[in-house]
């Protein structure tokens, strides 16, 4: 509520802002209307604890991939590249699907760490397969082409997810789970390179 010089209450319109009524703790909103507020994740750095949590969650996500890296390094030759890629993609698909059931902040952090821990093995297997599938004279071209496709897919994925994240969280999660499931089935069609001599 705004007061003019004669202390007469004025109508306050909050149009397309990141101010939400729930942010005004222990306040009474009078003659105020919130219209078309910005959707999505609005970060508020006014609280030092919030900034600490951002770095702490990033640290946990980085730490979560360490066991996956160790396991994939030890088992890459034993179980094969294709099985590691397909198996890790299936586990990533399942853990991504369970993100829709996370209702608390700690549950979401734990599920994201689980997703990062199981998906890193598929990235490692994909890196090894990319090196071993192509002969030396075509390897750098293949790396460049696949990296360009990855960047294009990342831009496309971000644009699709941002259009749905303000509406519902189920659609981006189901799209990611479906993409991982399709990727795991397509991975089994690649030739096995374990034990073969590189060209």
Automatic annotation (TrEMBL):
Membrane topology per the entry is: Multi-pass membrane protein
List the InterPro entries: MFS, MFS_dom, MFS_trans_sf
- Major facilitator superfamily (MFS) profile domain: which residues? 1-194
Q: Where in the cell is it found?
A: Cytoplasmic vesicle, Secretory vesicle, Synaptic vesicle membrane
A Gene Ontology biological process noted in the UniProt record is: neurotransmitter transport
One protein family per Pfam:
MFS_1
Where does it mainly reside? Answer: membrane
Entry GO terms, CC: neuron projection; synaptic vesicle membrane
Give the transmembrane ranges.
52-75, 82-101, 107-129, 141-164, 170-190
Tell me, what is one Gene Ontology molecular-function annotation carried by this entry? transmembrane transporter activity
Alphabetic keyword roster: Cytoplasmic vesicle, Glycoprotein, Membrane, Neurotransmitter transport, Phosphoprotein, Synapse, Transmembrane, Transmembrane helix, Transport
Q: Which PANTHER family match?
A: SYNAPTIC VESICLE GLYCOPROTEIN 2, SYNAPTIC VESICLE GLYCOPROTEIN 2A
Q: Which family does it belong to?
A: Belongs to the major facilitator superfamily.
UniProt protein name: Synaptic vesicle glycoprotein 2A
State the organism of origin: Gopherus evgoodei (Goodes thornscrub tortoise)
Provide the organism lineage as a comma list.
Answer: Eukaryota, Metazoa, Chordata, Craniata, Vertebrata
């Amino acid at each position: 509520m705004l007061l003019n010089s004669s202390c007469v209450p004025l109508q306050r319109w909050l149009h397309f802002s990141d101010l939400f009524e729930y942010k005004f703790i222990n306040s009474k909103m009078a003659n105020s209307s919130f219209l078309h507020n910005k959707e999505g994740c609005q970060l508020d750095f006014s609280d030092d604890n919030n900034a600490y949590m951002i770095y702490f969650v990033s640290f946990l996500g980085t730490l979560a991939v360490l066991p996956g890296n160790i396991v994939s390094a030890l088992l890459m030759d034993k179980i094969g590249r294709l099985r590691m890629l397909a198996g890790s993609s299936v586990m990533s698909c399942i853990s991504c699907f369970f993100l829709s059931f996370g209702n608390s902040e700690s549950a979401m952090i734990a599920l994201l760490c689980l997703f990062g821990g199981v998906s890193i093995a598929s990235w490692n297997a994909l890196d090894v397969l990319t090196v071993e599938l192509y002969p030396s004279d075509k390897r750098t071209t293949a790396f460049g082409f696949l990296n360009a496709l990855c960047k294009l897919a990342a831009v496309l994925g971000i644009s699709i997810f941002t259009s749905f994240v303000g509406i519902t969280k189920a659609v981006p999660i189901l799209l990611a789970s479906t993409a991982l499931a399709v990727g795991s089935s397509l991975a089994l069609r690649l030739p096995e390179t374990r034990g073969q001599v590189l060209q």
